Task: structure prediction
Amino acid sequence: MSAKILRGRILSFNDAPKARDDHQCYSFIEDGALLVEGGKIIARGVFDEIKAKAYDDVEVIDHRPHIIMAGFIDMHIHFPQMQVLGSYAGSLLEWLNTYTFIEEQRFGDAAHAQKIAGYFYDEMLRHGTTTAVAYCSVHPQSVDAYFEEALKRNMLMLGGKVMMDREAPQALTDTPQSSYDDSKALIEKWHGKGRNHYAITPRFAITSTPEQLEMAGALAREFSHLHVQTHLSENHAEIEFTKSLYPERKDYFDIYQHYGLTGEKSLFGHCIHLEDRERDAMIETGSVAVFCPTSNLFIGSGLFDRARVAGPDGKGRIAIATDVGGGTNYSMLRTLDEGYKILNLQGQRMNPLTSFYQITLGNARALSLEAKIGTLDVGTDADVVVLNANATKAMQVRMETVTTLEEELFLLQTAGDDRAIVETYVAGEALKAAL
Ligand code: GUN
Ligand code: ZN
Result:
């Protein structure tokens, strides 16, 4: 891991944009450079100055005229659903029962899990995603495959075994005790190994008995530094069914609150149809709502109301994710594009600076991991993407009329996909070109 300089147009956010033309929230260096060594960013600045400070024989990788920014972060994805993507179903529960709960059974086979894990990480890198937060299957061997592969590629990944003990085929269910024991063993095996982070993962309230959520809460108390992830308020039928299973609770979010599963490390996928109390309680507890645009459109779940979830003071914590295989694309650029459309329909267009802030520093903050990932700040991990806004003929034609950075970013999100990702660096190593 010798030192290298990445030369290009360097963009890094330092805060959430306050307005469309907020130029204080980012740093942009037209002929910039990153000095990278030992997996970290050692220096960032104007190329000539960085070069002058480095050893004469330092390798320089010239990415001009491309944009260099922090690697993308996908806040919610299902690793065992690569072969579910694009399954034809009318609603969430039908989609789960007809395809997903069938496919996930195959991950009891360690060899299958390992094969898919290889494909999964290839897609992450191809699409510029350097960190993801994944649901594995109920089987511990799926978690082993997931983290083993992360370790091989030295990626900072989060994930966990789904805990599910009812409302699914028997081959896909555990028990309250086995889910506790297996999760604990996996935490001890994987959390902190390489760059791996274990996330406690009760799938959602429908597939967990109260006894299992009790156990998930016990894990969350015992390992309070770990993230918790689950699903919340995605679809009307799901919400009604959930309430019927937990009639003593005030609402869907109250179920998770009751079992100690909410808080600043808790990530809730979807949050589309929240009641006022749920929204307020999410903000009060610092829980994170994860917006999954391509999934919400594909499964027909509804339109995420970002302004409402953010709350009147904007304090609601929000992240964005693909949710493959409910989601339809691994690309965070495609995700931004569909997210823009969902918000535009509600008069809430997200501006381009905010979009790129969200998939980098915004998501890193939602994980409380901004000291390590999400920026190109000195001392952080060298997880980096290189973006080409001229990646296709259609983009080249449009780029002829683009004059500002914001326009270029907006074109990248509107027309870009994996072809716009020139290179993906993980801890300073270029991994996309080798795929
Ligand atoms: N709710 C519970 N499990 C799932 C899942 O796998 N995908 C989606 N989109 N929603 C869920
Ligand atoms: Zn999901």
